[in-house]
Specification:
This protein is mainly α and about 425 residues long. The strands form two sheets. It has a two-stranded antiparallel ribbon. β1 and β2 form a beta hairpin. It is globular, with a radius of gyration of 22 Å. It starts with about 25 loop residues before the first helix and ends with a strand.
């Protein structure tokens, strides 16, 4: 996910975080971390989808991993949204600085990000719309249908928040370059105020305002990483920062402001995610030398490149594939042990591998949506700034709609139309002729 340089073959690992002034646009450890984040999300969702049959033969869905006594503690490690947003900030900062030096405008950057993220989501909305129409006319159980649709829409939460803050990169980076500490403090204060308002009112809608402030804060951490701030800290300092951030997050839990389950703190986003982002970026930098040596292996680089080449497709389509695989096993006797059985857990690695294979197979026809042309071809002209801004808004509306309400037929259909319009508006136009 990201700009052209993010999808090329990996370069040789560097020794430390990439400073802004360098001509190197990549940090291979960032590629490794981003791929690890996506695979961890797939594993987590795989463990959250349990399908079985009750005595009457009716399909029953469950979330097996959430019933485990270690689950809440695991979310303090497995909640990787802050890390991914910060890594996205690093790649966006290096990309925008390069493009800005070449004469691109902020609108050009917004257009590229909208196409990169909205275009791959379009076929998902279209397929879900078609599937829900068929299921409705086939008389499928409405409750089961809606539950499955809502599950498929879970990954779109990330896409909405990520697209929102990525479109603001030119302005947020300008603020960072002018006043890095002041910008970070202002975003943290705004997020804390929203957090307090949500806590006082109990309103989820109020808390969702932090999609902007929390998302922008952790993205700013990527700007600091790109400038080499984390790389200039000693190992002891990095460890101390990580411990302090985790301790502050725990104090928020003890005070009752935040849930001990860090996945719960994702909806709506809370200040605890900002603290996780600080800790995760500190730990990433602390282990950067070791991870850099790991990326020196040609086989590891090839594996990372293999996954990264279809990263967004894997992220968007793993839930539909998991649902289809779970449903298919119910049709075959002996292949669907109860989610409470040890056999279910022992079979997860094989199911994980199957999901990756299926996603890779369907990624070939979907790849064109990840490769939409960003730069106007010779003899054509880019869309106007107004069209670019309208396209960004149109792309955000259905994605934010999934956050406000679960994905259903009406939202899937509306999303298909709006995303199509966004892609059309962002495509290059034929050159005017005399």
């Amino acid at each position: 996910m990201g700009d052209d340089e993010e999808t090329r073959a990996l370069e040789e690992p560097v020794r430390g975080p990439v400073p802004a002034a360098t001509s190197v646009l990549r940090d291979p450890v960032v590629d490794l971390a981003r791929v690890a984040c996506i695979l961890l999300v797939v594993v987590a969702h795989l463990l959250m989808v349990g399908a079985g049959l009750d005595p009457s033969g009716r399909i029953v869905l469950s979330r097996p991993v959430e019933e485990q006594p270690w689950f809440v503690a695991a979310t303090w490690v497995g909640q990787v949204m802050p890390l991914f947003f910060a890594l996205g900030g690093f790649t966006a900062a290096t990309s925008w600085r390069r493009r800005r030096a070449l004469g691109d405008t902020a609108a050009d950057f917004v257009r590229s990000r909208t196409l990169r993220l909205a275009a791959p989501a379009l076929p998902l909305f279209a397929v879900v719309t078609t599937a829900l129409v068929i299921a409705t006319f086939a008389g499928a159980d409405p409750a089961l249908r809606d539950t499955i649709a809502a599950g498929i829409g879970v990954p779109l939460w990330f896409l909405a928040a990520y697209l929102l803050v990525q479109c603001l990169v030119p302005w947020l980076l300008a603020l960072h370059e002018r006043a890095p500490r002041g910008t970070l403090v202002a975003l943290a204060a705004a997020a804390a105020i929203v957090d307090l308002a949500r806590f006082a009112t109990g309103s989820r809608e109020v808390g969702l305002i932090d999609l902007l402030f929390v998302g922008a804060f952790v993205q700013q951490l990527g700007f600091w990483y790109a400038d080499g701030w984390f790389g200039r800290r000693s190992r002891l300092q990095l460890a101390a920062i990580a411990v302090a951030a985790y301790a502050l997050a725990w104090l928020g839990v003890v005070a009752g402001w935040h849930a001990p389950n860090m996945l719960t703190n994702l909806d709506p986003p809370t200040v605890s995610l900002m603290l996780l982002g600080i800790a995760q970026m500190s730990l990433l930098t602390l282990f950067h030398p070791a991870l850099g040596r790991l990326m020196a292996s040609r086989s590891v680089r090839a594996a990372v490149s293999f996954v990264a080449s279809r990263a967004l497709t894997l992220y968007l389509w793993h839930m539909p594939v998991i649902v289809v695989v779970a449903g298919a096993t119910l049709l075959l006797p002996g292949l669907a042990p109860a989610p409470t059985d040890a056999a279910w857990w022992l079979g997860r690695p094989a199911v994980f591998a199957l999901v990756l294979v299926v996603v890779w197979l369907i990624s070939s026809p979907l790849a064109r949506f990840e490769r939409f042309v960003e730069a106007a071809p010779a003899g054509s002209r880019a869309p106007s700034t107004a069209a670019i801004l309208v396209a960004a808004v149109l792309a955000l509306v259905p994605l934010l709609g999934v956050i406000l309400r679960s994905l259903d037929l009406a939202l899937a259909a509306a999303g298909t139309v709006l995303l199509t319009a966004a892609v059309v508006l962002d495509r290059a136009r034929p050159a005017r002729t005399r």
